[in-house]
Specification:
Elements: E1 2-8, H1 14-26, E2 32-38, H2 49-63, E3 69-78, H3 82-95, E4 99-103, H4 111-116, E5 119-121, H5 130-148
Parallel strand pairs: 1-2, 1-4, 3-4, 3-5
Helix pairs in contact: 1-5, 3-5
Binding site for S-adenosyl-L-methionine: 73, 104, 123-128
Pfam families: SPOUT_MTase
EC number: 2.1.1.177
Amino acid sequence: MKLWLIIVGQKQPDWIEAGYAEYARRMPRELTIQLVELKPEKRGGGKTAEQIMAAEKGRILDALPRDCHLIALDERGARWSTMELSQQLRQWQQDGRDVALVIGGADGLDPEIKQRARQLLSLSPMTLPHGLARVLLAEQLYRAHTILQNHPYHRE
């Protein structure tokens, strides 16, 4: 099974790249994290937020693995604890399908992506920069995996 992070946004600061890479590297071969960075739609020219999200929607749909379990990150989504995430990870592994976690662009995700998602997930009620959300998500996926393996990384 593979975990896909499909993110609208490119060119992150080095510290973001290093933080993400550290947690992705720690994942086992049977549960890798694959990052897909999508080019954001150019702003300006009278484009509305809806038009921008619609253009990004096409890129997201093209990037989704076939028959994946789609999770859309959204501020109104479920707020799982780390333990709840580990249980979700267990369920996803039992299902055997790849999981795609999608972070939209600056304007968010097109409503169609949210409707297609099996679950909406919020990392925090606070607004996070996209790069930081990427690192946080990778770390939490790693932490959830270690919980399932009874590894001492997570202390409760």
